[in-house]
Amino acid sequence: MVKIIVTYDGLIQQELSFGKPRITIGRRPSNDLVIDHLTVSGQHAAIDTSLQGSFILDLGSTNGTMINGQPIKKHMLQNSDVIEIGKYKLHITLEPERAASPAPVPSKAGSAQGVLPASGVALPIAKIKVLTGANAGRELVLNKPVTTLGSPGVLVAAITRQQQAYYIAHVEGSTFPKLNEQFIDTQPVPLKDGDVIDFSGTRMEFCLE
Q1: At 29, phi and psi to the nearest 5?
Q2: Are residues 42 and 35 in contact, defined by beta-carbon separation less than 8 angstroms?
Q3: pLDDT tens digit sequence for 174-192
Q4: For residues 41 and 57, is the Cβ–Cβ distance under 8 A?
Q5: Cα–Cα distance, 105 to 168 (Å, whole number)
Q6: CB neighbours of 200 closer than 8 A, spacing ≥ 6?
Q7: 27-34: which pairs have CB atoms within 8 A and are 24 or more residues apart?
Q8: Contact, 128 vs 140, CB < 8 A?
Q9: Vertex 205: Cα angle to 208 and 151 (nearest 5)
């Protein structure tokens, strides 16, 4: 679910929520979000939502699309991002699809609760451990539904935490990450404990706690 608050000069113009995989934004009446202003192209931008997360894409607009003051062609959205289209600002809130995920099942007393995969064993929280480079030794806990890694415009990948496993997929950039020495693309690939991810020479280990 994507919630969008549209403002103009700080005043709220629209407040909408969408649960569909693609939201089109533009001046034409056929768009899901219509912004009737000359600075906005007929079909200006789109928000696509998939297993990898929600992305804003500029659709070749005349005046471009900006995220938090930076021009973009494609960008993975995070909560509280502000999309700038013409003179309008779109304040983004990403809400989880409650109907798509089963409620957490209580575990035995004294143990942590979590989402139960098909095997009936709670999926543990995982982490990424940096093995090489300036940040060697640092660890990143994967406690969010989607965690992005890399540098925008160069190489970005997303790790998603789902009911049965963690998955990694390429998001943007002209270079692609490797998983255990094999290139991966936009198709999500499941991760296993001890897998090694390579970001242009920076190696990281996926660890299940």
Answers
A1: -65, -20
A2: no
A3: 788 899 999 988 788 889 9
A4: no
A5: 25
A6: 154, 155, 175
A7: 33/4, 33/6, 33/90
A8: yes
A9: 115
Kind plus residue range of the DSSP H or E element containing 8: strand 2-8
Tokens representing residue 54 in the block: 């929600």
pLDDT for residue 97: 53
Distance CA 56, CA 67 (A): 9
- For 90-110, give one letter per residue: b (16+ CB within 10 A) or e: bebebeeeeeeeeeeeeeeee
Helix H or strand E segment including 84: strand 82-85
Dihedral sign, Cα of residue 131, residue 135, residue 140, residue 144:
negative
166 and 139 Cβ atoms separated by less than 8 Å: no
DSSP conformational letter for 98:
G
pLDDT in tens, 119-164: 445 678 899 999 988 888 888 888 877 787 777 667 778 888 776 7
> How many other CB atoms sit within 10 Å of the CB of residue 76?
19
- Tell me what pLDDT residue 51 has: 74
Spatial contact of 60 and 45, defined as CB atoms under 8 Å apart: no
Span 33-51, pLDDT tens digits: 999 999 999 999 999 988 7
Could you tell me how far CA 134 lies from the centroid of its own chain? Answer: 26
CA distance 194 to 180: 9
